[in-house]
């Protein structure tokens, strides 16, 4: 006999029914029944990164599946909230629909569309500030963001009220200052001091990226990919002569790295 789940209309209704069944106290999945907001949150972050990864690689077939995985995360959290009596998925959908209409008066209202993307971004941020109400300048920047992304957002918030270097050269000078302080900390061999100064240097680098119009998270992600490609080249060339990186030395691997660099890898 077919499972009653197949009598539910396909699409979002069936997905919601699947989620409810997974959390059914009597017939649900034991693993799902043990989960809560905190235990599911890391999966939500992971799925968002997998969406970004598929987009970066242009893998549209994978993107379809990854978007489904990310959508399921929203359904999962909404199910948990409904069980706790906080809200349900309909409330979530209604909330985001209203927000998008309110945030786009130049599309859904009588405000002129004759403005730049930069002005629309400024208007969006102003609307968010009004919604937050009286708050500190840095309030509301999510703690769960990647550290470089959060650094950039904190700096942007501070810059809006004038707390910012006016010239890029000043930011570069700050990086040199922080690098010198990190070198001094390294000489002390104090792990806490080294970590503190390393954080200051990374924060200054994120600030320079912002001044140069570069997304620091995306820049580092690109360099990670480049490192992966070039190291794979090292492994492949070593394998051609029956060796592995562990059998090689730095000079040999560095020469192969430079080969990859010259080849544009």
TrEMBL record:
Gene3D superfamilies registered for this protein in UniProt: MazG-like (1.10.287.1080)
Segments forming domain NTP pyrophosphohydrolase MazG-like: 35-108
Keyword set, alphabetical order: Hydrolase
SUPFAM superfamilies cross-referenced by the UniProt entry: all-alpha NTP pyrophosphatases
Gene Ontology MF terms in the entry: ATP diphosphatase activity
Broad EC category: hydrolase
Recorded catalytic activity of this chain's protein: ATP + H2O = AMP + diphosphate + H(+)
Pfam families: MazG, PRA-PH
Any one of the GO BP annotations: dUTP catabolic process
EC number: 3.6.1.8
PANTHER family named in the record: NUCLEOSIDE TRIPHOSPHATE PYROPHOSPHOHYDROLASE
Similarity section: Belongs to the nucleoside triphosphate pyrophosphohydrolase family.
Name of the molecule in the record: Nucleoside triphosphate pyrophosphohydrolase
Organism for this UniProt entry: Palleronia pontilimi
Native organism taxonomy: Bacteria, Pseudomonadati, Pseudomonadota, Alphaproteobacteria, Rhodobacterales
């Amino acid at each position: 006999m077919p499972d009653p789940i197949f009598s539910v209309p396909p699409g979002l209704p069936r997905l919601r029914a699947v989620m409810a069944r997974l959390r059914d106290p009597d017939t649900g999945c034991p693993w799902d029944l043990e989960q809560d907001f905190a235990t599911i949150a890391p999966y939500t972050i992971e799925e968002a990164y997998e969406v970004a990864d598929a987009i970066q690689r242009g893998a549209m077939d994978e993107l379809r599946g990854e978007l489904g995985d990310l959508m399921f995360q929203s359904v999962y959290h909404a199910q948990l909230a409904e069980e706790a009596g906080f809200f349900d998925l309909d409330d979530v959908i209604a909330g985001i629909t209203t927000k998008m209409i309110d945030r786009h008066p130049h599309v859904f209202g009588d405000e002129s569309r004759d403005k730049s993307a930069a002005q629309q971004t400024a208007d969006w941020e102003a609307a968010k500030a009004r919604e937050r109400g009286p708050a500190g300048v840095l309030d509301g920047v999510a703690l769960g963001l990647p550290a470089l992304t959060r650094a950039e957002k904190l700096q942007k918030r501070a810059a809006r009220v004038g707390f910012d270097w006016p010239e890029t050269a000043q930011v570069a000078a700050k990086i040199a200052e922080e690098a010198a302080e990190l070198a001094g900390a390294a000489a002390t061999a104090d792990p806490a001091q080294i970590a503190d100064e390393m954080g200051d240097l990374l924060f200054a680098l994120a600030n320079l990226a912002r001044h140069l119009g570069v997304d620091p998270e995306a820049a580092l992600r690109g360099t990670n990919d480049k490192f992966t490609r070039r190291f794979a080249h090292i492994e492949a060339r070593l394998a051609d002569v029956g060796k592995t990186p562990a059998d090689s030395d730095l000079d040999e691997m560095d020469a192969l790295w430079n080969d990859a660099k010259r080849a544009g890898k």
